[in-house]
């Protein structure tokens, strides 16, 4: 579980750092060629690249998650038992409610 949280925190940090760094680089003319752009073009290009950078980080995070083995994570047995009981109670309640509704219609 610690590995999953570690990957999530790193991906979250990159989702904040990359767009801010791109916007900062464009606004303070740190990137070559950004001084020749009009303010309107500079805003559009920096915003577009910031959004693209976040999407790239998300794609990498999804790829890392898909590469993890599925049998590595086992659900808690107590949680599964409680969930099954809850679902069975709900389905029993729904069928008895349907029977009551049918009797009312007759």
Automatic annotation (TrEMBL):
<dbReference type="GO" id="GO:0005789">
    <property type="term" value="C:endoplasmic reticulum membrane"/>
</dbReference>
<keyword id="KW-1133">Transmembrane helix</keyword>
<dbReference type="InterPro" id="IPR019013">
    <property type="entry name" value="Vma21"/>
</dbReference>
<keyword id="KW-0812">Transmembrane</keyword>
<keyword id="KW-0472">Membrane</keyword>
<comment type="similarity">
    <text>Belongs to the VMA21 family.</text>
</comment>
<keyword id="KW-0968">Cytoplasmic vesicle</keyword>
<feature type="transmembrane region" description="Helical">
    <location>
        <begin position="46"/>
        <end position="66"/>
    </location>
</feature>
<feature type="transmembrane region" description="Helical">
    <location>
        <begin position="7"/>
        <end position="26"/>
    </location>
</feature>
<dbReference type="Pfam" id="PF09446">
    <property type="entry name" value="VMA21"/>
</dbReference>
<dbReference type="GO" id="GO:0070072">
    <property type="term" value="P:vacuolar proton-transporting V-type ATPase complex assembly"/>
</dbReference>
<keyword id="KW-0256">Endoplasmic reticulum</keyword>
<protein>
    <recommendedName>
        <fullName>Vacuolar ATPase assembly integral membrane protein VMA21 homolog</fullName>
    </recommendedName>
</protein>
<dbReference type="GO" id="GO:0033116">
    <property type="term" value="C:endoplasmic reticulum-Golgi intermediate compartment membrane"/>
</dbReference>
<dbReference type="GO" id="GO:0012507">
    <property type="term" value="C:ER to Golgi transport vesicle membrane"/>
</dbReference>
<comment type="function">
    <text>Required for the assembly of the V0 complex of the vacuolar ATPase (V-ATPase) in the endoplasmic reticulum.</text>
</comment>
